[in-house]
């Protein structure tokens, strides 16, 4: 399986519409890949909190339309990173005032929406995303030919119990779009490898380049195999990282070193 991670540079001088068109063109250029992955909140920038409300869109909004067409044109599975989603308002809310979510979208090679994942762990403690956006409640997996994707987003990477849940749901490849800051880049690499080792799964972690609202981004998108070996790692600028994966290596690793069978502490035994 060939995967291409598009480490998009977010330039505050580039409009959201222009970046959306540019990224759609980059996705189309990945024809021949099986899976293409985009970063978190690449339309606005992960730290551009003041833009979330203005640029929020419904699931079937302009990013959905552009990415669905690009996936179909390239004939690829596309994890289109995440968008600031404006959900439909509750029955008691004023029109147009539905909650915001940090929502990832996955499209099939025919351009159909295969899955959407609302980020569960929101970053910011008592400010930023943590107060502006709602928390997702559902674990999401997507079955591709040869592997099952488990979906997580950025700050989720710090919470191993989420990944254990995804393993129990059948995940063999974790896809983690992010807008990770440069000042904590060492954590990004360490956590990506840890999630791969402890779950004996591939990790495809795709970050952004550039600076979001004055916060320099780490870049360094990374692909880690089920033994924790780094197969490929990007630099700090905009870059496309392409790597060939062997989906059978997940089952082989879990058979050769069956640590997941020894889980205790009241956790469920992984389904097989």
Automatic annotation (TrEMBL):
CDD domains: nitrilase_5. The keyword Mitochondrion does not apply. Belongs to the carbon-nitrogen hydrolase superfamily. NIT1/NIT2 family. GO terms for molecular function: hydrolase activity. PANTHER family: DEAMINATED GLUTATHIONE AMIDASE, NITRILASE-RELATED. Residues 1-247 form the CN hydrolase domain. It comes from Streptomyces heilongjiangensis. This is Carbon-nitrogen family hydrolase. InterPro entries: C-N_Hydrolase (IPR003010), C-N_Hydrolase_sf (IPR036526), UPF0012_CS (IPR001110). Keywords: Hydrolase. Coiled coil: none annotated.
């Amino acid at each position: 399986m060939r995967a291409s991670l598009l480490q998009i540079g977010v330039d505050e001088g580039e409009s959201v519409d222009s970046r959306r068109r540019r990224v759609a063109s980059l996705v189309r250029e990945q024809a021949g890949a099986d899976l293409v992955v985009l970063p978190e909140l690449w339309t606005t920038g992960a730290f551009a909190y003041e833009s979330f409300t203005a640029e929020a869109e419904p699931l079937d909004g302009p990013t959905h339309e552009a990415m669905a067409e690009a996936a179909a044109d390239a004939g690829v599975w596309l994890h289109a990173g995440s968008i600031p989603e404006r959900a439909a308002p509750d029955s008691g809310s004023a029109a147009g005032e539905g909650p915001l979510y940090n929502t990832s979208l996955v499209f099939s090679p025919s351009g159909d929406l295969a899955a959407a994942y609302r980020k569960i762990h929101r970053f910011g403690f008592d400010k930023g995303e943590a107060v502006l956006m709602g928390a997702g409640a559902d674990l999401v997996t997507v079955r591709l030919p040869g592997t099952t994707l488990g979906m997580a987003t950025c700050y989720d990477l710090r919470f191993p119990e989420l990944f254990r849940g995804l393993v129990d749901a059948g995940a063999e490849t974790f896809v983690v779009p992010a807008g990770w800051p440069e000042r904590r880049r060492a954590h990004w690499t360490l956590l990506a490898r840890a999630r791969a080792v402890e779950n004996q799964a591939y990790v495809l972690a795709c970050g952004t380049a550039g600076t979001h609202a004055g916060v320099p981004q780490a870049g360094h998108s990374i692909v880690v195999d089920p033994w924790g070996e780094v197969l490929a790692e990007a630099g700090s600028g905009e870059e496309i990282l392409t790597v060939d994966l062997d989906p059978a290596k997940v089952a082989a690793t879990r058979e050769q070193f069956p640590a997941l069978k020894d889980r205790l502490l009241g956790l469920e035994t992984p389904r097989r």
